[in-house]
Amino acid sequence: MTNPTNLSGGAKSASGASASVLSYFRWAFIITILGLALGAWLGWQTTGTAGGTATIFFICCVLAVLEISLSFDNAIVNANKLKTMTPKWQRRFLTWGIIIAVFGMRIVFPLMIVVIAAKIGPWQALVMAASQPDEYARIMHDAHLPIAAFGGTFLMMVGLSFFFDHEKEVHWVRWLESHMARYASIRGVEVAVVLLMILGFSQLHDGAAAQVFVNSAIWGLLTFLLVEVLGGLLDRVQQDTLSTAAKGGIGAFLYLEVLDASFSFDGVIGAFALTQNLFVIAIGLGIGAMYVRSMTIMLVEKGTLSEYRFLEHGAFYAITALAVVMYVQTLFHIPEVITGLAGALLIGIALWSSIRWNRRHGHTHGAE
Predict the structure, then answer these.
(1) Rounded CA gap, 127 and 123, in Å?
(2) Beta-carbon count within 10 A of 323 CB
(3) What percent of the chain has pLDDT over 70?
(4) Would you say 269 and 46 are in contact if contact means Cβ atoms under 8 Å apart?
(5) CA 63 centroid distance within chain
(6) Where, by residue number, does the polypeptide cross the bilayer (predicted)?
(7) Bigger pLDDT: 222 vs 187
(8) Are 288 and 125 within 8 A, CB to CB?
(9) What does the longest C-alpha to C-alpha distance in the chain come to?
(10) Domain spans of the chain, in order of start
């Protein structure tokens, strides 16, 4: 584990007490104030009325809460991967990574969807977002099927890869997880499960929609496999190059970026149910992304994943559930609030189970 000052820059006190929870969210609070102020200014500029300004301000707040609720599991998975990375790559992910997450996925990604779907240039897409928000939202909505199929497949592979692990010894839902761990020795079992799900859901679509679903889902599967292979190759090269063999460098960074993108699909598309203004969406979801970063740092530095043994399990159950929801959303709409609450509920139950286990076995907070 890296030194606590490596991530947030805040040293621990001489007594060894860990930093307070609020200190981890200092930058998130600052960005929240700046973002909401920018949202209020944008509301005044676009509507010119106090009511319109208040509406835009409220939408920014709701989008931030939506992003946070959808990203509890994202923060836990990030923390689980970060603890295996070198301090240098941890810092890079928490600086470059958050820039890519906020500006890349919350601004560039929606623009590129419109660029590809409407076959126009990036500047024309940006102009459309500003001057024709209804048309922009329509194009984004029409692109929901391939995005949900791609992102759902990638997240399904992430979730199943955690459970289909023959080295996994800690089980939360023992009757299920023990069997999955036992069958993990069968090569490609999680891929087979995902392919069966793809074939099953494709039967529920008609004609061209079924073909789009299958093609997009296969690309999601290939992307996961390619990221795994490329990450392993890059990390092996890094280990061979460095005098001190480092685990979890550029390969892990790449994995986390693609993972964050997959988590963002649902939030970005769902945001258009509240507003068609790309800039309001970027502000609201960007604020939420900062809280994900803060939660990630706190989980790594405070060792929360090791203190609550089932918390990680809850996150991967939430990821798997989100993947299924994204598949189902290709058939009919499921409110994003329900999606976020379901993930938070699974993580909350896992946390409660972890606390009960600690009490039953005499583990105290902070003990390994």
Answers:
(1) 6
(2) 26
(3) 78
(4) no
(5) 15
(6) 21-44, 50-72, 93-118, 143-164, 184-204, 216-234, 246-265, 271-293, 314-332, 338-355
(7) 222
(8) no
(9) 67
(10) 23-360
* 220 within 8 A of 145, measured Cβ to Cβ: no
DSSP string computed for 165-179: -TT----SSHHHHHH
Handedness of CA 100, 106, 110, 115 (dihedral sign): negative
CA-to-CA distance for 170 and 112, rounded, in angstroms?
42
Asked if 263 and 269 count as a contact pair (C-beta separation under 8 A), the reply is no
Q: How far apart are CA 87 and CA 76, in angstroms?
A: 18
What is the separation of C-alpha 12 from the centre of its chain, rounded to a whole number of angstroms? 29
Q: Is the dihedral of CA 350, 159, 141, 256 positive or negative?
A: positive
Measured in degrees and rounded to the nearest 5, phi and psi for residue 82 equal: -65, -35
Per the model's pLDDT, the better-predicted residue between 157 and 111 turns out to be: 157
Nearest to 221 by CA among 313, 158, 142: 158
Runs of H (alpha helix) within the chain: 5-8, 21-24, 26-47, 50-70, 72-82, 87-92, 98-99, 109-118, 122-131, 133-142, 144-163, 174-182, 189-202, 207-241, 250-271, 278-301, 304-307, 311-328, 336-360
Question: H or E stretch including 361?
Answer: none
Q: Are 73 and 292 in contact (CB under 8 A)?
A: no
DSSP-assigned states of every residue in 69-90:
HHTHHHHHHHHHHHTTS-HHHH
Looking at residue 4, its pLDDT comes to 42
Find the length of the chain: 368
At 111, the amino acid letter reads: L
Phi, psi of 6 (to 5 degrees): -70, -30
* CA 150-258-320 angle, 5° bins: 55
- pLDDT per position as a tens digit, 112-162: 777 876 778 888 888 887 778 778 778 777 777 888 888 888 888 888 888
Tokens coding 224:
């996961």
The residue written with tokens 């023992």 in the block is 174
DSSP code, position 365: T
- 129-133-135 Cα angle (round to 5): 100
CB burial of 162-175 (b: ≥16 within 10 Å; e: otherwise) equals bbbeeeeeebbeee
Q: What is the pLDDT of residues 271-306, one digit of tens each?
A: 665 676 778 888 888 888 888 788 888 877 776 667
